[in-house]
């Protein structure tokens, strides 16, 4: 069964450094998402992406965050200058289409630890 | 602010029993609802989706939706210890450019006792 793959599985970074989290969505999916989950808290929406543009971003997704689809397969989340509070699990998800009933399939996540 | 509410639990049931998990949502216009299972330290795994009022069954799982009451539930029959996990209720919410984001509840932790 096709899967969303994320790398790395764990990233440890010094505060203030830039990080790039990588995702390969399911190949025929058109909509891509990033979510994050701080330890012990809810899964929170960060951003959705379609046709090489951001469709929606949350209040969390400030100027320190950016997303990119640099080629036909990868989808990346960049955090420019990390803060301690960016420590969380980051999940990439993808879905096929434009309807609300299209389920989103999640990758295994990247655990980001900011020191 | 669109919200999804779940009892955090833990809900403890004996092996073989029926586990009943509940969720309420605030946006009356919501159309699609999903249940995800999340094991500790792992990613959400889709187990059920439901879009119409009534029941939807898939194996040991039954999702129930009541849009008038803004209530979604998940029943797990013949619960197994391997079902022990956190169950996340998610509601699809329309965003920009025809995209839909998921709004998650905080999850209900289920413990199935052998």
Name the beta content range of chain A: over 45%
Strand content of chain B: over 45%
> What oligomeric state do these chains adopt?
heterodimer
Distance between the termini of chain B: 40 Å
The number of helical runs of chain B is: 0
Could you tell me the radius of gyration of chain B in angstroms? Answer: 14 Å
Structural class of chain B: mainly beta
Q: For the report, how would you describe the main beta sheet of chain B? A: 6 strands, mixed
Can you offer a commentary on this structure?
The complex is a heterodimer of chains A (115) and B (114). Chain A contains no helices and eleven strands. Chain A has strands spanning 5-7, 10-13, 19-24, 31-37, 43-50, 53-57, 65-68, 75-79, 88-95, 105-106, 110-114. In chain A, the strands form two sheets. In chain A, strands 2, 4, 5, 6, 9, 10 and 11 form a seven-stranded mixed β-sheet that branches. In chain A, strands 1-3-8-7 form a four-stranded antiparallel β-sheet, with no helix packed on it. In chain A, a hairpin with a 6-residue loop joins strand 7 (65-68) and strand 8 (75-79). Chain B has strands at residues 4-5, 11-14, 19-25, 33-38, 45-50, 54-58, 61-66, 71-76, 85-94, 100-104, 108-113. Chain B is mostly beta strands. Chain B has no helices and eleven strands. Chain A binds chain B through residues 31, 33, 35, 41-45, 48, 50-51, 53-56, 58, 89, 91, 93, 95, 98-109, and chain B through 31-32, 34, 36, 42-46, 49, 51, 88, 90, 92, 94-107.
